[in-house]
Amino acid sequence: MTESDEKGAFQADIPANAVEEALRSVEKIAKGGGEEAEAPPAQAEGEPPVAVEVEPAPDPAALAREVEGLKAQVELSTAKGRETMEKLRETHERLLRATADLENYKKRAAKEREEVQKFGVEKVMKDLLPVIDGLDRALAAAPAEGPLAEGVRLVRASLEQALAKHGLVGFSALGETFDPALHEALMQVPTADKPAGTVVLEHARGFKLHERLVRPAMVGVAVEPAPPPST
User: Fold this and answer.
1) What residues contact 24, with CB distance under 8 A and at least 6 apart?
2) Which terminus of the chain faces fewer neighbouring Cβ atoms within 10 Å, N or C?
């Protein structure tokens, strides 16, 4: 070899085992497409052996104890969950009952308030009824066309209009069939002019306060006259 050839040449010392390992790698890549993981390199001759630690097999008794402990914890958690759900259910039911009681109380309070507004003046109205009765008796005794009767009639009309604003309304029972819910019979009147049970006399009119009876009409009721004595 000339001196110029020695200058352009490259020479390297490559171990034989490295070349073999490279060839094996190329063959694996060509066969498997490089997808399979490469096997760990073979231990070179003369290298010390690698120590591999092997974990000891678990104790079956210890595993059983651990499993039992986990089961006990799960059962305890389940029992506590049931207890909590039961308490929540009871609390929910108590709240529902309390809400229902509150709604019922509100309804009762509203009804009582309405009753007070409607009938709180009932006692005063009852005290004024004798005054109205006195005016009615005065009209019955006075001449129908006289100025006194006209004045009394105007006073009574004004009074009844004022009382009607608070719900007090009078009613007459003359000519109607006797109704014990609205009339109070003071006497029986034997007569053949009206059917038995008909109101033929009225001593005092009846009055209602917001459709509630305050005083029944004081009346006389027709009955069949007694048969004539036989001769």
Assistant:
1) none
2) C
Per-residue pLDDT tens over the stretch 43-100: 555 556 655 565 666 678 888 888 888 888 888 888 888 899 999 999 999 999 999 9
Is residue 219 within 8 A of residue 199, CB to CB? The reply is: yes
Phi-psi region of 79 (alpha: psi -120 to 50; beta: other; left: phi over 0): alpha
CA atoms within 13 A on the CB side of 207: 21
The C-alpha atoms of residue 30 and residue 12 are separated, in whole angstroms, by 27
Instruction: Establish if 203 belongs to a structural domain.
Output: yes
Q: Are 128 and 215 within one domain?
A: yes
Q: Which of 119, 150, 168 is the last residue of a domain?
A: 119
Supply the angle between the helices 147-164 and 122-141 in degrees, to the nearest 10. Answer: 160
> Whole domain around residue 146: which residue ranges?
122-223
Please state the domain count of the chain.
2
At 193-205, the pLDDT tens digits run 999 999 999 999 9
